[in-house]
Design a protein that fits this description.
The protein has about 525 residues and is of the alpha/beta class. About 35% of the residues lie in helices and about 20% in strands. Strands 1, 2, 3, 4, 5, 18, 19, 20 and 21 form a nine-stranded mixed beta sheet that branches. It has a six-stranded parallel beta sheet with strand order 9-10-11-12-13-17. Strand 10, helix 7 and strand 11 form a beta-alpha-beta unit. It is globular and about 85 Å long. The chain starts with a helix and ends in a 15-residue tail after the last strand. About 50% of the residues are buried.
Length: about 525
């Protein structure tokens, strides 16, 4: 009898000590341990030497030497361990379905993308979020709801005030999107139909979004002659709308307006001093990117869509009026005073035009080499179906002043890119790596700790992502490991399809998605919802 009872007694003793039948007692305590890293934890605090352990998709421990074993241990001595970067302004909402691995972002340490910027988003948002959730993908994604999309769905791309019933419908659509999981409201007051929206109308939607815990993020109405007034408007929307407000991809466009960031940043400082929760995001390039017609034609000429624009251009009197305004824009604003500052990024109807300048188009078309000829080149591109463009008209001094400001975080304004297609702005490949190489290591504009804070904890707090953005036990294990002496952007305006270098490991929700130069088969990305999702 005693012989038969002994195994049972031993099993009971093992269970009392926490062992489980059928499980080896030396089972690893963690899924992954990164050893000997320089931890830059996202808070802005100085880096420190530590191990980081992961279990079940979250950070389980951080310490000088973590005891125990893991299914895998990696020595990252000499490298930085940072939280995965969070891009609060991404146009990747469509491209992610073409490239679910989001290679151009993963290879520069980005683990989370926020879609739906510039007033444009899927609407209704719920079905799009459902489709995103069903897509196995590498990165986390959330979305804003676009004010321009809401307005367009109710009254179209027209320049008129809404009726009381239409405004009520817009409020309902904003509320519906927040309940579906939107993180906030984006506005594109530079674009049709946002440009036709009075400030008071935006504030009405902002109040709905603010009541439901969201944020307002704005591509402002004007980033050239009207940049100061546009910052005032963005502040006003937050102040009267009762919600956090953000100047997105803040810049000053046009040689005659360079230096205006001194005044815009003063306005932001004053607003914050009186209690307005206003912040900024920016990218580290002196060129912007958008469609040729949105950038170079006046907004009134774009009312009603491309077909209406073609009809206006077919009328000699209207064409002459549009030409005058477009020539001014090419001279003083997005054109930077020279048609060669405008470079075509893509044309769906003629791929061979990608990389050519507006000056090249003038020559191809036999147009007069003048600002009026440049306007006619822009008209021709529009009439054929429209093209994307890159516009070199931003001051490096303004860029640095804005990036250095404590209320500024980093965002790309880029896309999830099909490698080799067209000639996109290099920001999609290099934004975060460029900040770390050019503005931290090479020029010392900001410190490493400040840069990481602007890419992680700051945007996480801004978007209400309470479970990530900082290296701390209990938070999501989104991590980027890189060599601070080697990290760099390789994408250029002439050759944009080049991945960032220096990142040896990227982890999303506890799974390795980039190791060395290889994107793994893991697809751990999650949908990140806003605070009012039901």
């Amino acid at each position: 009898m005693r012989a038969r009872l002994l195994p049972l007694l031993l099993t009971a003793a093992a269970l009392a000590l926490g062992a489980r039948p059928g499980v080896a007692q030396d089972a690893p305590a963690f899924d992954l341990i990164l050893r000997n890293g320089r931890v830059v934890d996202g808070t802005g605090s100085p880096w420190y030497r530590a191990d980081v352990a992961i279990r079940g998709g979250v950070i389980a421990a951080v310490g000088p030497t973590i005891p125990g074993t893991a299914r895998r241990e990696i020595d990252v001595a000499g490298q930085v361990i940072a939280p995965g970067f969070i891009d609060v302004h991404s146009h990747g909402g469509s491209g992610i379905f073409d490239v679910p691995t989001a290679d151009n972002y993963i290879r520069q340490g980005v683990t989370t993308l926020i879609a739906g910027p510039d007033g444009s988003s899927a609407l209704p948002l719920g079905p799009w979020l459902d489709s995103l959730a069903a897509l196995p993908r590498t990165v986390n994604m959330g979305s804003m709801v676009g004010q321009g999309s809401i307005r367009s769905s109710v009254i179209g791309s027209v320049n008129r005030a809404p009726t009381t019933a239409e405004l009520d419908r817009m409020r309902s659509l904003a509320e519906e999107a927040m309940l579906h999981g939107a993180l906030g409201l984006s506005t594109g007051l530079f674009y049709v139909p946002g440009t036709f929206t009075p400030t008071e109308e935006v504030i009405e939607l902002a109040r709905v979004v603010g009541r439901l815990g969201g944020i307002h993020v704005s591509h402002m109405r004007n980033e050239a002659a009207g940049v100061v007034e546009s910052v005032r408007e963005t502040i006003r929307i937050g102040e009267e709308g009762g919600l956090p407000t953000q100047v997105t991809h803040h810049k000053v466009i046009g040689l005659g307006y360079w230096g205006a960031s001194v005044e815009t940043l003063r306005l932001i400082d004053e607003a914050r001093a009186r209690g307005v929760d206003v912040t900024i995001d920016s990218y580290p390039y002196t060129a912007s990117a958008t469609s040729i017609h949105a950038a170079l034609l006046p907004a009134w000429a774009l009312e009603g869509g491309l077909q209406s624009t073609r009809q206006r251009l077919a009328d000699p009197a209207q064409r002459a009026r549009i030409r005058d305004e477009s020539a001014r824009i090419i001279d003083l604003e997005r054109g930077g005073g020279n048609p060669d500052n405008v470079v075509i990024s893509n044309c769906g109807w003629d791929a061979s035009l990608a990389g050519k300048t507006l000056g090249d188009v003038m020559e191809l078309r036999g147009l007069e080499m003048s600002l009026y000829g440049a306007a006619e080149a822009a008209f021709w591109l529009t009439e054929q179906g429209g093209c994307g463009g890159v516009f070199h008209a931003i001051s490096e001094d303004d860029l640095v002043r804005i990036l250095r400001h404590p209320a500024t975080m980093v965002a790309s304004d880029g896309d999830v890119i099909v490698f080799g297609r067209a000639r996109p702005h290099p920001r999609s490949y290099g934004t975060f790596a460029r900040v770390l190489s050019e503005y931290v290591r090479e020029r010392g504009v900001i410190t490493l700790e400040q840069a990481i804070h602007k890419m992680t904890a700051f945007p996480a707090q801004r978007m209400g992502l309470q479970d990530r953005g900082v290296i701390r036990p209990g938070l999501a294990a989104d991590l980027a490991v890189f060599d601070p002496a080697r990290v760099r952007d390789t994408a250029t305006f002439e050759m944009p399809h080049q991945y960032a270098e220096g990142f040896s490991l990227v982890v999303v929700n506890g799974e390795i998605v980039l190791e060395g130069t290889r994107v793994t088969d893991a697809r751990p990305g999650r949908v990140l919802f806003g605070p009012s999702r039901r």
